[in-house]
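ENCODED BACKBONE
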Amino acid sequence: MEKILVLDFGGQYNQLIARRVRECHVYCEVKPYTTPISEIREFGPIGMIFTGGPNSVYDEDAPHADPELFRLGVPILGICYGCQLLAHHLGGSVVAAQSDAAREYGKTETFFDTSCRLFKGLPERGVTWMSHGDYMERVPEGFELKAHSAACPNVAICDEARGFYGVQFHPEVNHTEHGADMIRNFLYEVCGAHGDWTMGDYKETAVRSIREKVGGGKVLLALSGGVDSSVAAALVAEAVGSQLTCVFVDHGLMRLNEGDEVEAAFRKWDINFVRANAEDVFLSKLAGVTEPERKRKIIGEEFIRVFEAEAKKIGAVDYLVQGTIYPDVIESGSGKAGAAVIKSHHNVGGLPDYVDFKEIIEPLRMLFKDEVRQLGRELGLPEYLVSRQPFPGPGLAIRIIGEITKEKASLLRLADFIFRDEVAKAGLERTMDQYFAVLTNMRSVGVMGDGRTYDYTLALRSVTTSDFMTADWTRIPYDVLDRVSVRIVNEVPHINRVVYDITSKPPATIEWE
């Protein structure tokens, strides 16, 4: 399989670079710049990408590349700091940009020499996203200037003979026009990739690998009903069938019919599916609790206890499956020591203390979220599960402001369903990245029929985002909001007012608690 190595020098877009490569059907991995040269040779990349980073190459403590990298005989694309690193190591000179030199930030009109393979078939001018305060005052011998802006004559440099390319801008971000095409050109025109990375192939390879590893052993998985754990369960089920036991802890705080949908999705596999209906246990533990973090902690701890109780009935198992995905691996920096990454369920609670297992399996640890969804489709999971929007582990508990009761959960469950139902009928699901209802603890006066009411206010929340670090509130058409409001007030008891949250993140968070 053809592989690209993304060497991370501390850039904020390292995951995005890797995603752009994989979108071109070429497999890649992100590794720290400290990765030993022997490990890189063993990895066998057909090309390397040096990421950006916050340092200046001339700083005393700046991260540097092993000089042997330039003698491996494979093409290199340096992005921003990575570009300056190329220049610095190969005989050029990088200095701090002066006020009248090439310090550039944000969208910048750029002019390209399209005879360069990196820009082959692209327009000769376009907008790029700059973010650099340093300047290459001298490029290395053998390099040519292949792009410029009004302020900078060396926006892009290359040594076509050796396949070394450097760009001062970020082709991986959406702000750069044709940036994805530039990355594709590097992969196909420079590195000679053929595009042999498909999710269908990955599925077959992963199934074989899991089957060989597990042998005749017993496997246990804690199923939350989220995308990651569901796809991990389906993949392992495809590999070992009845050797897998899935414990689905239903805490009674899921969305309408969600527990039944999760159970139905796994009927096609011959696995041991255990549904622990623990609503009463969770609600009794949450009684009188109003503080959000306390709610999370109680639910996380109780989830582990319920899972442990079910696991004890099964006895010793050989493998415990975790739904760790690639962003978890990258963010943990686990590549440095090869340590196993333990993904805490719901990001709270932690790993069960009393489950007897020998080893952890993380079948999704090399996949990004969009790839996990794609794999789910390859495995035949229903679309309602694969395309499920983010849902917090504590479920509706942190969308009920104040104390949680069974009645409040029922009210919110129905109101949330109506909101999602009307969004689906309007064909707006793909225009929103996360949307849900929140039952506030505020009551207000209303009039229904000839009588006065004093009931709950329900809030609607919808955001659009590319990374969930920042988010903008969705401009939902008024007629859709009107239908949602009318239905909720008429169909859900004890709600007499509906409001829409028009706050972005920051200053607000996406969830209310």
